[in-house]
Design goal:
The protein is mainly α. Helix content is 57%, strand content 11%. Strands 1-2 form a two-stranded antiparallel sheet.
Length: 161
């Protein structure tokens, strides 16, 4: 049985916490249950960190065999959503810094998943888009995302926020 806390756009798999070694979540959960005040801002922050770590590890287990990292997964799925993006737009969408995203784009371009071209409307910007090989990989990644969402929805109704 899968038990998931649903935070806005975040799924936290509580039943696999022990396996994934997220004792932090269990401690925070116990503190919140025993507290007269309830969840404080710091405990909510700890829950978000634990949720993010859990999601990253669950996604990593599925994408590592495809020879990409969870960050590459998020980048490719972000690019799949729409039109070509500039580096700045991609950076903001991923909540990461410019140099990190730039290196990731270079890696994915080298591997043939992305093309980078000058923006015809702005001389200093670039446009980043998926190649056919990138779209093919994104089909596999989309199935992983759909499987994860289906997995997250299997928890009993009483566990959902």
């Amino acid at each position: 049985m899968v038990c998931v806390y649903t935070l806005p756009n975040v799924w936290l798999n509580e039943c696999r916490i022990q396996t994934l070694k997220f004792s932090t979540f269990i401690k925070v959960h116990q503190m919140a249950k025993n507290s007269e005040v309830g969840l404080t801002l710091s405990t909510i922050g700890m829950l978000i960190v634990a949720a993010r770590r859990s999601i990253r590890q669950l996604i990593a287990a599925k994408v590592v065999p495809l020879d990409i990292t969870p960050h590459h997964y998020w980048m490719l799925m972000t690019l799949l959503k729409g039109a070509p993006m500039s580096l700045g737009e991609l950076t903001r969408a991923m909540w990461m810094d410019n140099p990190t995203v730039s290196r990731m784009v270079q890696q994915m371009e080298f591997r043939g998943y992305l093309t980078v071209s000058p923006d015809p409307t702005h001389g200093r910007k670039i446009q980043i888009r998926l190649t056919e090989e990138g779209y093919s990989l994104c089909e596999q990644l989309s199935r992983i995302g759909a499987d994860f969402q289906e997995y997250a929805q299997q928890c009993p109704a009483g566990w959902r926020a």
